[in-house]
């Protein structure tokens, strides 16, 4: 069975392995986090991804949660999600700060097709994000 046939946002990834799908989704979410960092130079240069558990019907792929995909693999949640629905948190380690900062600065050029800028973005993507349990969230935000 194809994931794309079962859930919105999965058609872009051609594997039935749930762990592979989750890892690929984490990569997409990390890139989305990088885009948020690029838009706000005043925040710390660490990507953050919060994985949440939501019912299947609470997601879509278009800007309004509808079926038109805004970007491959992108899934939007229709409405706010309580922190209690968080499954895990993924954050860059301190040693990624320099590469993430450079990637945030190079993202627009990479999007425009600059190969050198894309290498800079790729360097940030080479950093594995750290995994934290939901019980560790208070320590992360302290």
Can you tell me about this structure?
- The chain is an alpha+beta fold and 142 residues long.
- It has one domain.
- It contains five helices and five strands.
- The chain has a three-stranded antiparallel β-sheet.
- α2 crosses α3 and α3 packs antiparallel against α4.
- The longest helix has 22 residues.
- The radius of gyration is 16 Å and the shape is globular.
- The relative contact order is 0.16.
- The N terminus is likely disordered.
Helices and strands in order:
Blueprint: H1 3-6, H2 18-39, E1 48-52, E2 59-60, E3 76-77, E4 86-91, H3 97-111, H4 115-125, E5 130-132, H5 137-141
Antiparallel strand pairs: 1-4, 2-3, 4-5
Helix pairs in contact: 2-3, 3-4
Radius of gyration: 16 Å
**What is the terminal separation in angstroms?**
44 Å
Number of domains: 1
- The overall strand count is 5
**Overall morphology:** globular
- Proportion of β residues? 5-15%
Structural class: alpha+beta
Average of the residue pLDDT scores: 82
Number of helices: 5
What's the helical proportion of residues?
40-55%
- The string of secondary-structure elements, in order, is HHEEEEHHEH
Q: Profile the largest sheet.
A: 3 strands, antiparallel
Enumerate the strands of the largest sheet in spatial order, edge to edge or round the barrel.
1-4-5
Spans of at least 5 consecutive residues with low confidence: 1-12
List keywords for this structure.
two-stranded antiparallel sheet; about 140 residues; three-stranded antiparallel β-sheet; alpha+beta; 5 helices; 5 strands
